[in-house]
Write a structure and sequence with these properties.
The complex is a heterodimer of chains A (251) and B (138). With 251 residues, chain A is mainly alpha-helical. In chain A, 76% of the residues lie in helices and 0% in strands. The longest helix of chain A has 33 residues. In chain B, α1 packs antiparallel against α7. Classes of the chains: A mainly alpha (251), B mainly alpha (138). At the A-B interface, α10 and α12 of A face α1, α2 and α7 of B.
Chain lengths: 251, 138
């Protein structure tokens, strides 16, 4: 485990040196600031809109961060040929993947927590209260972000770099659809579309901004279930990524 | 090629064993959304006779507000939405099915989530084992 942690910290330092990450983080904070500046026009529940749009902004930020963090890691390592000496002696391919994933996941977590604090500040400065479930809601969005990170790693091993981001965004979009909504995209082959959709995750598991914006309580058990569901799907995607990576010829 | 086949087989297994009955819209029990006493709302929107309904229409509220603004006899409470649109305790409003069909409220799918978690973890372990075993053989 120690080599993985050391490699994760190395990945963390490498990623922090990239301008892309800072750019995406600044865009997220600017978007949250802009949401806070939308005039209320006297609507009594303005806080709901700020919260709803803010959490949606954090979700899109998690997607952008996942793509920005992970899509170039393996292609760059392969291009610079740094991956070969790394996995030749000190690390196995599994440890390489876990180190890279944990490093990127730590940055994603830091960015989401910063975004959540920013949203709290915006709510307070606009005279609204902060819902009790705000942090757990951000936590679920972070789990979704980690899942997307695993998806990006999977695609970076499986496809060419230019296809990585479009495929991840496509998966993100179709995972938001219900089965019936997905079948409507191509109604000529309902069975095929149904099978395709049922393989994909249910992203709505991570979305609790509606009840939070309406002041409804979420059972603690649900947070636990949704967290475990997201982590299990992340583990599955990472195992698939590792299976593809183990099959790769790096010469 | 073998890997692609393995991915496809895993995906099919996942769809059959893990997700076949997961769509909330399809598995919602009839009692989950609650008695929708305003199912007739869509019909009454096209009906011209407002006297037969026990609540005022949204469209009429603008005209009502104008009337009330001209008269000092009415206070603001008479125009409050709760006065026009009263539900019994525990009864859910019409058109909110989508809201209560979200996973956090649809407790009937939580068991399926647990099942999915277990199957996903088992599949992860199987994929890891198979890919590692195959690599050792090479």
């Amino acid at each position: 485990m120690k080599p993985v942690i050391t490699f994760a910290l190395m990945t963390l330092r490498n990623l922090l040196r990239r301008r892309t990450i800072w750019g995406i983080s600044i865009v997220i904070l600017l978007a949250l600031f802009a949401i806070g500046q939308i005039p209320g026009y006297g609507v009594s529940n303005e806080g709901r809109f700020i919260l709803d749009f803010g959490l949606f902004g954090l979700e899109i930020g998690a997607l952008l961060l996942a793509i920005g963090l992970a899509s170039n890691i393996y292609p760059r390592d392969r291009e610079k040929r740094t991956v070969m000496p790394i996995i030749a002696v000190p690390l196995s391919r599994g440890q390489y993947l876990m180190g890279r994933f944990i490093g990127a996941a730590i940055i994603e977590a830091a960015a989401m927590i910063t975004g959540c604090i920013g949203l709290m500040v915006i709510l307070l400065t606009n005279g609204h209260s902060i819902p009790a479930d705000m942090l757990p809601a951000t936590g679920l969005l972070l789990i979704e972000g980690w899942f997307l990170l695993a998806v990006v790693f999977f695609f970076s091993f499986w496809t060419s770099p230019p296809l990585n981001a479009p495929l991840t965004v496509l998966l993100f979009i179709v995972s938001q659809l219900s089965v019936s909504g997905f079948i409507k995209l191509f109604p000529q082959a309902p069975d095929l579309m149904r099978t395709l959709r049922l393989v994909l995750p249910h992203m709505d598991v991570f979305h609790i901004k509606d009840p939070i914006a309406h002041g409804m309580d979420i059972p603690d058990l649900y947070f636990l279930l949704a967290t475990l569901y997201g982590l299990a799907y992340t583990a599955f995607m990472l195992s698939m990524a590792l299976a593809v990576f183990r099959n790769r010829d790096l010469k | 090629m073998r890997l692609t086949a393995a991915v496809l087989i895993t995906s099919v297994l996942l769809s059959i064993t893990c997700k076949a009955d997961y769509d909330i819209e399809e598995v919602t029990p009839s009692g989950h959304i609650g008695t929708d006493s305003h199912d007739e709302h869509e019909e009454c929107e096209v009906c011209d006779d407002a006297e037969h309904h026990d609540h005022e229409h949204e469209a009429d509220s603008a005209a009502t507000v104008l009337l009330h603004e001209e008269s000092d006899e009415h206070d603001a409470l008479e125009m409050a939405g709760s006065d026009r649109h009263v539900h019994d305790a525990g009864e859910r409003n019409h058109g909110t099915g989508w809201f209560f069909n979200q996973p956090w409220a649809a407790t009937f799918i939580w068991g399926k989530m647990v099942r999915d978690i277990v199957i996903l973890l088992v599949l992860s372990a199987a994929v890891l084992f198979m890919s590692g075993h195959r690599r050792k053989r090479h």
